[in-house]
Amino acid sequence: MKQLKKIVIMLIFSFTLFLTFNNSSYAVEVKANYKEKVINTNLGENESIVSNTNELGIVKNAVVYSKPSSVYEFFDEDDRYNLIYATEQNIYWSKFNVDMEVSETLSTPIIYDKSNIAEQLKQVTYTVGAYAYHNRSLYVVYARATEDVNDNALAVVKYNKNLKELAKEEVKSKYIISDVNNKDSAMKLPFYGSNCSVAINGDILLVFLGKGRVDGNEDSSTLFFNINTMSLIKNATNHGITHSLGQRAIATSNGNFLLAETGDTAENRGLNITQINKNSKNTKIMFHYGEGMDNNLGHNSTYHALGNIIEVSDGYLYIGGAEPTLHKSYGNVMNESWNIFVQKYDKIHFENKTTEELQMLEASVRQTTGERPAKEGKGKLFLEGSETDYGVKWLIDLQSQSSAVHVRAVKLEDDQVAIIWQETKIEPHNDKGYTYDEKSLTAYYMVIDKDANIITQKTLIPYAGTLSVEENYIYNDGKVYWVTTSENTNALKIHILNIRNQFTHAFQDIKPKEWYAEAIQYVYKNNIMKGYDEKTFAPNDTITRGNMITILYRLENESSIQNDKEYDEKALYWASKNGIISNTYGIDTPLTREDFAVIFSNYANYQGFDTSKARRIDDFVDCWDTSSYAYGAMRWAVTAGLISGNQDKKLLPKQNITRAEFACAIKNYCDRVKNK
């Protein structure tokens, strides 16, 4: 019975190696290096943390609503993690020590309340809009609903590190406008169906928010404050996109601000990108969205996921989610799954270039397609049918009843960007849009470079729950952080995603989704294998005996050979002296899989590992094709995971080994033998 158990275990081990090495048809979904940390808050009586998920459901009825984030996080000048979060009564500031434990929690009362808001609006109206930590001060944007345009409706408060108020500037409703010539464009409801975003550039703080207007319409506005004097700059440029469904703002290196928002009316139905400062603005529609589901209104549903805009060294990247096809037709349900797309905009002379001239990616042109049905009612259709989007690159292709939602992006090091999103199964809902089961939400991430090339392939993030919608995720020392809230427990969950494994090489012939990509990243990063040059690894080329010895020598000692086309005379002497090879004949000939097993077995013996304990290999149909001198080494190489069979259960001992297979073998040896 014990012998049978051993056989079963060995077969399972062998089959596992067979699945994970050398055969992409058995690809297993890669899981992220991810962990969570739960923070239990000690709130006052009758207090609860404001939910950080979308209040109205980001895909219910296909209507996208945003809301201000109730949490904000940052690393301070001492490189310590800090977390700000809000209830309806107070703002809390938890400071963490080097071990990511809470060392101190401060609180301060919220300056506005909801006492003057109608009951039916209280659930969709928020008093805390945004936060920013800058030069040891915390800035908080507050707002409240007003009936009188002469009432104070928004405030920016500056706090010190002890959460004590340093200064405050309040703004009347009539100054929070989108059109200086229209007093009815003043704010009545802050953040209504939208959110708030802030950015600081020099001594200027920008507040970019969506709002409900006095006249009942909805749009967005921008306000500029001098943080030294804590005063509103009265001549700030007015800005308003009708039916703005979400706001993003960043400070740019040229001293301006860049805004991204969604508009869903005839004038701006799509992704609006605005370059703005306190004196001027320039807005362009970079990406269009389809018609809505209502024949009379045409815009009641906007099928998209608003993502982020990020500055890289030579341009701006926008990352979001939408239907790949821009349909002329409109309907009660979505036409396609939402996929993640990226555009790149030139930052030089942004205001003087057309949308086509601004695009920097070589990607297909996206145009309206299909037939427009006969319009019913008096409503306006918002697509003319000639809309064109340039430089749109799609990063995923969801061809099933699944869509990408909760799309967030964060800048990393070296012009790299991490994209985090969730995919959900969708179902039509009463012929009007669709709904989703929150339990079906699955989280993923990928890493791209500044030209939208995928560096780290789509990777599963396990157990992530429902991702935050509006929070700005942060990056620090190889990790991405974000926070979600729990309404039932008043707990905060800090999500920590380690993305140190993003590719560091620039090999253009290595596709991230290939079965060998991770292994090649490993051997390159650890200086074990190199390319033919900076851009070429040649994964399918064969490897010679001399190449193998040089690489093993590099694994043992640093080799002076800086590419893998040549071999090192010192390495040959070292290998011969230590019994790793018996002679140097045929050093330039391609290496067979069985000779590879022999040399690697000798190297393992040289390193002090016992290679005598090995499984049988007669379950491989061609095992007896292995030469007698190599049979024992082949058994060890299979047991150690250095060689596995193909789909036909063949070892192919006489076949030449490729550079990709060799990289996988090196990684498996380091993981399972050397570093075990």
Description:
The chain is of the alpha+beta class and 676 residues long. Helices cover 14% and strands 32% of the residues. It is built from eight helices and 33 strands. Strands 10, 11, 12, 13 and 14 form a five-stranded antiparallel sheet that branches. Strand 29 and strand 30 (454-461) form a beta hairpin. The longest helix is centred in the first third of the chain and has 19 residues, at 2-20. The radius of gyration is 30 Å and the shape is elongated. The model is unreliable at 1-29 (pLDDT under 50).
Give a short overview.
With 676 residues, the chain is an alpha+beta fold. It has eight helices and 33 strands.
Which helices and strands appear, and what pairs or packs with what?
Blueprint: H1 2-20, E1 33-40, E2 71-75, E3 81-86, E4 90-96, E5 102-109, E6 128-134, E7 137-143, E8 152-159, E9 165-172, E10 187-190, E11 196-201, E12 204-213, E13 218-226, E14 231-232, E15 244-251, E16 257-263, E17 270-276, E18 281-288, E19 304-312, E20 315-322, E21 326-327, E22 339-345, H2 355-358, E23 366-369, E24 388-389, E25 393-394, E26 402-411, E27 417-428, E28 434-436, E29 442-448, E30 454-461, E31 474-476, E32 479-486, E33 491-498, H3 517-525, H4 545-556, H5 569-577, H6 593-606, H7 631-639, H8 659-674
Parallel strand pairs: 21-23
Antiparallel strand pairs: 1-33, 2-3, 3-4, 4-5, 6-7, 7-8, 8-9, 10-12, 11-12, 12-13, 13-14, 15-16, 16-17, 17-18, 19-20, 20-22, 22-25, 23-24, 26-27, 27-28, 27-29, 29-30, 31-32, 32-33
